[in-house]
Amino acid sequence: MPSYELITFPDEPALAAAAAADWLALLREPSAPRTTAISGGRIAKSFFAAVAALARKTGARMDSVHFFWADERCVPPDDPESNFLPAQENLLRPLGIAAEKIHRLKGEWPPAAAVAEANDEIRRVAACDGAGNPVLDLIFLGMGEDGHVASLMPNAAPEVSQCREPYVHVANSPKPPANRLSLTYPVLAAARNVWVLAAGAGKLEAMRNSLRLNGKTPLARVLQSRPHTRIYTDLNGIAGQESK
């Protein structure tokens, strides 16, 4: 039976502030996460800004963290659709993160080349488990209104949903842009920590479906594959309905 911790907030700023504080607190522990994958999505900008502001206020250091991405659109890094751009503008540049700690996905490259480079890079930095999956210390995920996480969509093609490599090219995504790069389910299952940040109206039903024992959404699949996942959300009306 999957185990998850559901933490609710009155609004998105409160969610972003709490997740930021928890991340920086985790970095102060002896087993601090050194390999982290971040995501884009609706809450990314406010979350990254909250992390940077709190780090500057408290003097917290993030220079030991290696930054990866859960997914990326196949666009240049300065494109408004890029998941790299809000992280660069609101987190990495304000905190002066060194270039060698930033392992962005090359969305501007041909997808096959970008996936090959990303798979080599994540395996170079992160230790692998017995099945050959890179084990990241912490992965941040969002959730879409259809329950998708990273760029793992409902009803994805078998070459995506069954991929055993760390990263995969997602072609013909139902959400534009059609071409994306994404972490795969085995890496999400193998991570030491996965924190889901789910904010915004329109996602309540997807969250309810994801928390059901027989849930079928991509987020449900992630929850069912892991011993524990933490969920931060500003969606009301969830608690007590997970098993229905």
How would you characterize the overall build of this protein?
- The protein contains eight helices and nine strands.
- With 244 residues, it is an alpha/beta fold.
- The chain has a domain at 22-135 and 148-191: Rossmann fold (3-Layer(aba) Sandwich).
- The chain has a six-stranded parallel sheet. The chain has a three-stranded antiparallel sheet with strand order 4-7-6.
- Helix 1 (12-27) packs across helix 2 (44-58), helix 2 (44-58) runs parallel beside helix 3 (84-92) and helix 7 (204-211) packs parallel to helix 8.
* Main CATH class of the domain at 22-135 and 148-191: Alpha Beta
Helix percent band = 25-40%
CATH architecture of the domain at 22-135 and 148-191: 3-Layer(aba) Sandwich
| Count of alpha and pi helical runs | 8
Strand content: 15-25%
Apparent shape:
globular
What class do helices, strands and sheet pairing give?
Answer: alpha/beta
Mean pLDDT: 94
